[in-house]
Specification:
Layout lengths: L1 H18 L4 H43 L2 E5 L11 E2 L2 H8 L4 E15 L4 E9 L6 H6 E4 L12 E5 H7 L6 E6 L6 E11 L4 H4 L2 E5 H8 L5 E2 L1 E6 L5 H11 L4 E3 L5 E3 L6 E5 H4 L1 H39 L1 H9 L4 H37 L6 H4 L10 H18 L1 H4 L7 H5 L3
Parallel strand pairs: 4-9, 6-8
Antiparallel strand pairs: 1-11, 1-14, 2-10, 3-4, 3-7, 3-11, 5-8, 7-8, 12-13
Helix pairs in contact: 1-12, 2-10, 2-12, 2-14, 10-14, 12-14
Length: about 425
Amino acid sequence: MRESKNSDRLILETFIARRLGGGRKAGIMLRVATLCVAVSVAVMLVALGVVNGFRSTVAGKVSGFASDIQLTARGSGNSYETLPVVYDSLLADEIRSTDGVAHVQRFAAKAGIIRGDSAIRGIVLKGFAPETDTSFLHRQMVAGRIPTYTDTARNREAVVSRALCRSMRLRLGDKFEVLFVGGESPRRDRLRVAGIYDSGMEEFDRMTVVGDLGVVQRISGWGRELIGGYEIALSPDADPDRTASLLAETLHPAAVLDGWGAPEPAERNGELDISTVGDRYPQIFDWLRMLGLNTAIVIVIMLTVAVVNMSSGVLIVVLEQTRTIGILKALGMRNAVLQRIFVLRSVRITLRGLLWGNLTGLVLCLVQQYTGVVTLDPESYMMAAVPVRVEWWQVVCLNAGTLAVVTLAMALPTAIVARIAPDKSIRFQ
């Protein structure tokens, strides 16, 4: 019986809320309030989509170039070239068995200079091993192919960025000379362009040339057993910091090099440094965190705008319906019920604004995601177009949060209902 009465009461309140359209001024203000809610929701959705896009795209590309975690000789720091490490297959197997690790591969890098007819460019030749995962590089390829590298023969084919090819006037099949400085005397080598890639990350594209690990080992004066370190790719749901801590606790490296000398036994966990991609490129990930802070500020501002405009609209409706409120009070309707009626009215307006805001915001996000119509300066933003990624759980939370915040905020403007006296308000014109 009580449930039936509550249901009838809710139906009555909803009916009255629907009929309280107000006069001309109230109608205009309610349209403005609906528009403000729609614009606020659309701006918040676009802001979230852009920040998600920047985070996933930039973090994914940086990890693709530099790996999620690197294991290098102590003293290498964040330099492009690392001190040599003796490859230990047992250590590699132990890394693979660590929770969160998806792939392990050898690598080595050597800084050099490309000399052309009209330009000179500094590069980093990154050596790929036979087991290197090339799926990221495949997604960035625009011409040619990725060479096959083996441990039995050195391959002088390389993959060069489109930006570097343009500046050095290189095409597929062209040979180019690289000068490597280091060691007792400079070394030269001639490589051939087998493929061209374009990641849009100007900071990496203008420097990174992919080549054979064996070529880097020869240029560095190393034997086949020496490498620059281990690159570790993580599972999508793995936390880099947690995995790095697990690696630090469990690894038992076999041998490393002391500087450029002969291999020496390594103490347990004592001679290898473990660094995450965030440790090596803190400026990029700090920038991404700042984007998240900016998004939070945008959301707060947009919610404030929506609440203020909705409050103004509801206040005008209440003032224009003063006589109706007095009549309902004279008939015995309580203040709490009247207040609830106007809150229901604001919920209807908010839901209409959410509908149009979601439609506008999601269309803008999806258009940019699939067309890239809004472009960027690659040198400043490390990509050619604004990246967008829509997380549907964020869309649901944003809509629910906006509805809850606006509805709760309406308790203040609707409280004016309690101050309206029936005897005076019935005579109100």
